[in-house]
Amino acid sequence: MIQARIPTEPAIAIVGATGAVGEELLALLAERSFPARSVRVFASARSAGKTLRALGRDVTVEPLAPGCFAGTNIAFFSASSAISKEWAPQAVASGAWVIDKSSAFRMDQRYTLAIPEVNGAELDALRAPTIIAVPNCSTIIALMAVSPLHREAGIARMVVSTYQAASGAGAAAMAELAQQAGDWSAGQPLQTPIFGRQYIFNLFSHDSAIGADGQNEEERKLLEETRKIWRDPDVAITATCVRVPVLRAHSESINLTFRTPITEERARAVLAAAPGIELVDDRAANRFPEPINATGRDAVLVGRIRADHSQAAGFGLNLFVSGDQIRKGAALNGLQIAERLLSV
Amino acid sequence: MIQARIPTEPAIAIVGATGAVGEELLALLAERSFPARSVRVFASARSAGKTLRALGRDVTVEPLAPGCFAGTNIAFFSASSAISKEWAPQAVASGAWVIDKSSAFRMDQRYTLAIPEVNGAELDALRAPTIIAVPNCSTIIALMAVSPLHREAGIARMVVSTYQAASGAGAAAMAELAQQAGDWSAGQPLQTPIFGRQYIFNLFSHDSAIGADGQNEEERKLLEETRKIWRDPDVAITATCVRVPVLRAHSESINLTFRTPITEERARAVLAAAPGIELVDDRAANRFPEPINATGRDAVLVGRIRADHSQAAGFGLNLFVSGDQIRKGAALNGLQIAERLLSV
Fold first, then answer.
1. Measured between beta carbons, which residues in chain A are less than 8 angstroms from residue B186?
2. Three-state secondary-structure class, residue A269
3. B13-22 pLDDT, tens per residue?
4. Dihedral of alpha carbons A176, A179, A181, A185, sign
5. Per the CB < 8 Å rule, is B184 touching A181?
6. Which of A108, A134, B97, B343 could serve as a FRET partner for A175 with CA atoms 20 to 30 Å apart?
7. Contact B245/A201, CB-based, under 8 Å?
């Protein structure tokens, strides 16, 4: 008999509970009837003392403090990388499994970077409390769609252009975009505290730091995280990451080059059978993935599946995906990791 | 001595003068001091009798009628393809040079498809009144940026993802988007007469018909028009065309594969010296092409120029462009064709 790694009704903690991802995680706990025995919520000192609703109970926001993870079985981190770097190892030392949404440990070779539908088997092999990193939202949404095709025919190269929502920059960025819609309509000056520029009716290169090679961090993550998750250091990826005036679902235009040929029909069949994605690919009605239709949904929407005739026959494919950035791009993926840990 | 093809002060006509492109053309005539001796304006019977301002004079909108192009030297068409198909040949028969923004004659091998900065020499070779087609907006904006690179190193393949503005679907589509911003902010139901779906805070696959191969018309145009303009039937292009909630400038993420290697530095130097484009490529300040900064500008903005390390060294490059869809994407390109015709 395999001994359970985690009590069937674990004590959980949420660090960053007042942020967009933390709020979504609290909602998902209830929606999915997560069997938590208790929920503790942590946030910055500014939010400490507030009351949040967790699994039908009122809980008080606590500040992080030495020893605060004693008795916690699973700790979800959705705060800054700095917070994760400081506190996640302490949580593990206290005996908690840490599921970390930040970028702090994603590329750390000691830790698994997990999308349960893609590499959940790596989670099954873990035996003792550790850190499990949640990939960047753009990586999750792309890999949900392309991993089944990669398993089928081997992806040699991906060219990705993203259409990323405000939510990736947090709740304040979403509020900024919404506020600008009203102010623009009223002829009022636009407030730009987050992005420093007009966002409504505009788009701009992703607001992350750019390296010497001209790639920004968001683009680099897509390459490096995919190679780690797929355990495939040879896959070639080039990405252009763009912020568009959409509230909370990312879209991505993806062009694929395969190692072995795959027909459009076979690709569609593979995707139709894959977990966590939904085909929205109605050419007659011109209905394809749209971010508002992905919003609030667990599934990543996949469509515009078509052979790419600019490549050798059978070796190229295009597709377009939309996925809820806060949900599958962050909170849901984290919760699915916990569910997978509990299932073994 | 070469005889002028067109009087130095031509009589011009504008068909579709009340549309978004027609209005922009009227503004550009004044802005560029186009040496028209007279301007006649045509539109649908619904608009006939209205007064428009053209080169400082009030002119009355006329309906199209047999013989209406008598005495016209240059006729600009920016109405529907059906109108162009019916009336453009009549204008030519009357002795007018026709500059046609519609798709009616673009792929007709009898006629030149012209971007003056790219293939203006073809215009210089024309001797008698004919139809000259203006390419689709997405083609113009992409080719302004990539044609100089094509001349330098030969482009073998392009992967394009577009971020297209409302204006490509006309003034009513722009109004629909603007109206939705206000209605969304006021908590009112959204009106969707043009696109039949929420547009504010959303994006969707380009609303053109989709062929059996899964490509929509907008994507097919980019391929076919580029091959014609470059006189290069071998260039491979795959595109994904997407409508984003932006008012009037298109952006495009472009991934290039070259026939001969080109360094990032050389590409930047070539683009810096090319006509009609402006480099906006400040990595330190994270300033790159944005549609609101391209709006109202003649130049197509080009940035995010960087080597694509997913391809063999020197053979791959990424870039991002924004260009005013109504201006260089339509009205300005048409007027530049007329200027070029007058210059020889």
1. 182, 185
2. helix
3. 999 999 999 9
4. negative
5. yes
6. A134
7. yes
Q: Which residues contact B120 (CB under 8 A, 6 or more apart)?
A: B114, B340
Q: At what angle do helices B137-153 and B116-124 cross, to 10 degrees?
A: 90
Q: Which residues of B touch A306 (CB under 8 A)?
A: 213-215
Residue A2 banded pLDDT, cuts 50, 70, 90: low
Place of tokens 């939904």: A278
Candidates B68, B150, B206, B250; catalytic one: B250
Asked whether the beta carbons of A145 and A319 are under 8 A apart, the reply is yes
Paired sense of beta strands A74-77 and A97-100, if any: parallel
Q: Is B266 on the interface with A (CB under 8 A)?
A: no
Q: Any CB–CB contact under 8 A between B237 and chain A?
A: yes
* B178/B64 Cα distance (integer angstroms): 32
CA pair distance B315, B261, nearest whole angstrom: 5
**CA B290 to each of CA A198, A249, B238: distance values in angstroms, whole numbers, following the listed order:** 10, 21, 23
Q: Is B201 on the interface with A (CB under 8 A)?
A: yes
Q: What is the pLDDT of residues B75-94, one digit of tens each?
A: 999 999 999 999 999 999 99
Res B3: pLDDT: 60
- In order of start, what are the domains of chain B with their CATH numbers? 11-134+330-343 (3.40.50.720), 139-325 (3.30.360.10)
For the full predicted model, state whether its pTM sits above 0.95. Answer: yes
Instruction: Say if A195 is an interface residue toward chain B (CB within 8 Å).
Output: no
* A89 Cα to chain B: minimum distance (Å): 34
A309 is an active site residue: no
Q: Which residue's entry shows tokens 């302004």? A: B144
Q: Is pLDDT at B2 greater than 60 in this prediction?
A: no
Radius of gyration of chain B (CA): 20
Inform me whether the C-beta atom of residue B198 falls under 8 Å from chain A C-beta atoms. yes
Contact A73, A311 (CB under 8 A): no
Query: Which residue of chain B has the CA closest to A256?
Result: B159
Buried b (16+ CB within 10 A) or exposed e, A160-198: bbbbbbbbbbebebbebbbbbbbbbbeeeebeeebbeeb
HSE toward the beta carbon, residue A135, CA cutoff 13 A: 31
Question: Amino acid identity of A165?
Answer: A
Residues shown for chain B: 344
Interface test with A, best of B138, B158, B160, B161 (most A CBs within 10 A): B161
Contacts of B201 in chain A (CB under 8 A): 177, 181, 245-247, 291-292
**CA distance readout (Å), B336 to A88, B76, B122, B134, B137:** 62, 12, 14, 10, 14
Beta strand ranges found along chain B (DSSP E): 11-15, 38-42, 51-54, 57-62, 74-77, 97-100, 112-113, 131-133, 155-163, 204-205, 236-240, 242-243, 249-258, 277-279, 300-307, 316-324
Task: Please give the helix or strand (H or E) that residue B6 lies within, else none.
Answer: none
CA dihedral B163, B165, B168, B173 (to 10 degrees): 140
- Which residues 308-327 of chain A have a CB within 8 Å of chain B? 308-311, 316, 318, 320
β-pairing, B242-243 with B204-205?
Answer: antiparallel
Chain A: residue nearest B251 by CA? A203
The upper half-sphere exposure of residue A181, i.e. CA atoms within 13 Å in the direction of its Cβ, equals 25
CA distance A334 to A53: 19
Tokens describing residue A108: 């750390």
| Rounded distance between C-alpha atoms, residue A148 and residue A163, angstroms | 22
pLDDT digits (tens, 9 = 90+) for A140-198: 999 999 999 999 999 999 999 999 999 999 999 999 999 999 999 999 999 999 999 99
Number of C-beta neighbours around residue A97 at 10 A? 26
